[in-house]
Amino acid sequence: MIDPSFDSLVASLLARLGGPGPVLALLAALLLGIFGLLSARRSQARQRAEAAMAELRFTELLKAQTEMQGRVAAMAEVFGAKQSETNQAINTRLDGLTQRLGQSISEQTRATHENLRRLQERLAVIDTAQTNIQSLAKDVVGLQAILSNKQTRGAFGQSRMETIIADALPSGAYQFQAQLSNGVRPDCTIRMPNGQPPLVVDAKFPLEAWNAMSDGRSPEAAKVAAQQFRRDMEIHIRDIAEKYLLTGETQDTAFLFVPSESIFASIHENFEAVVQKAHRARIVIVSPSLLMLSVQVLQALLKDQRMREQAHVIQGEVVRLMDDLTRLDDRVRKLHGHFTSAQKDVDLILTSTEKLARRGARIGELEFEAISVPSPQAETTVESRSGQLRLRIVDED
User: Where does the sequence pass through the membrane (predicted)?
Assistant: First the structure.
C-alpha cells in the first residue's frame, strides 16, 4: 500500500521538473518503489504491533475469562450449597406441612363423620317429630270434627273439665251429673268444706257463634257473628244463674268452664260487657288453668277440714304417746339403777381378783431352806428327808 503523502511528493517533483521525462520517470519509479517498500514495512510493523497488542489483549481476556470461570465456579459452589440447604429446608417444611395437612385432614374427617352422625341423629329426631306432627294433624282434624258437632263438642268440654277435677280432688269430693231439687243436672258439683253447699261447674260453651266470628270472613259478617256470640253468652249466663244457683242447696257462685285459654283471653279482651254481666250474675268464667288453680285451693281447704276433723284423734294419740314416753323413762331409769348396781358388783369382783392375784404372786415367791431360822412371826414347818421346808405366811389386806 502506497502512502498518499508519497504520491503527493512525486506529483510535486514532476511538476517542478517540467513534466515527466524518461530519467525522471525512472527516478520517480525508483523513488516510488522505495517509498512503497518503506510504507509496506511501516505497515507490517504497525500490523505486528497491532497483532502483539491484540495478543496481549487476548491474553488479558483469557486471564479475565479464567478468573471469571473461577468466580463462576465459586459462585456455582456457593449457589449449589445454598440450593442444597434451601432444598433441605423446603423438604423439611414440606414434610411438616404434609404431616400437619394429614393431621388436619384426619381431624376434619373425624369432625365430618361426627357431624354426619349428629346430622343423622337429628334427621332421625326430625323424622320422629314429623311422624308426631302427622299424628297430631290427624288428632287436630279429629278435634275439628268433634268441635263441629254440638253434642260432641259439649262432651269434649265436659270430658276435659272432668279430667281436671278428677286429677286434683279425691273421689268423694265431687260428683258428675248430680240431680238438684229442681230436676236439672249440672255437669259437676264440688263438695265444699264445713258442710257448705256444693259448687256448681258448667262445661257447656256456645262455640258456633265463636267459630263463625273466627272464620275470617268479611268485617260485616264478623260483626254479626260477634253480636250473636254476645247474645249466646248472655243467654247461657242467665240459664246458669236460673238453674244452678239455688239458695241453700248450691253456692251463690258458679263456674262457667271455657275449654280453651285463647277463647278465655279473647272473651276478656273483646267482650268486657259479657264478663261484667257474668260477675253481676255471680258466674265466674274460668279457663282450664284457672279451674285447676281453683280446684287446688279447694283441695287445700278440704285437706285442712279433714285435719281439723281428725284433730281430737291426733290429740288422743299424742296423749298416749306421752304415756308411752313416761313409761319408757321409768324403765330406762330402772335399767340405769341395775347397771349402777352391777357396776359396783363388778368393782368388788375386780378388788377380789386383785387380792387373789397378789396372793398367787406371793405363793410363787416361796423360799425353800435347809435350816430353820426362828422368827417372831408365825411359821409352819414341814419335815422332809432333805431338811425342813419353811412356809412363811404374811397376812396383808
Answer: 20-38
